[in-house]
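INTERNAL AUDIT FORM
Audit reference: QA-55
Scope: verify that the stored structure record matches its stored sequence.
Auditor: D.O.
Record contents follow.
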Amino acid sequence: MNTTWFEQGIEKGIEKGIEKGIEKGIEKGIEKGIEKGIEKGRRELLLEQLEEQFGPLSEAVLARLQQLPAEQLSRLGRALLRARSLRELGLED
């Protein structure tokens, strides 16, 4: 079946749009993966530092640490330098 130049143009446009969409999706997926990896690393480092300073952590403290939003991890890491207890850090009642 013969297609017109107009139909060919539309097909090309659709193909380009799909390619761009896939590229953007892959790019966003990679960015999200990197962000998640960084967050996981920060959490693991913080856990090691907390255990080094305060000894083995209770399940409740571990759960609280896992529930902290990513943006609070850096603050907690800095506060850990001055804290004398898990309570001061808000990780223990």
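Auditor finding: record pair retrieved intact. The CA atoms of residues 15 and 21 lie 10 Å apart.
Action required: none
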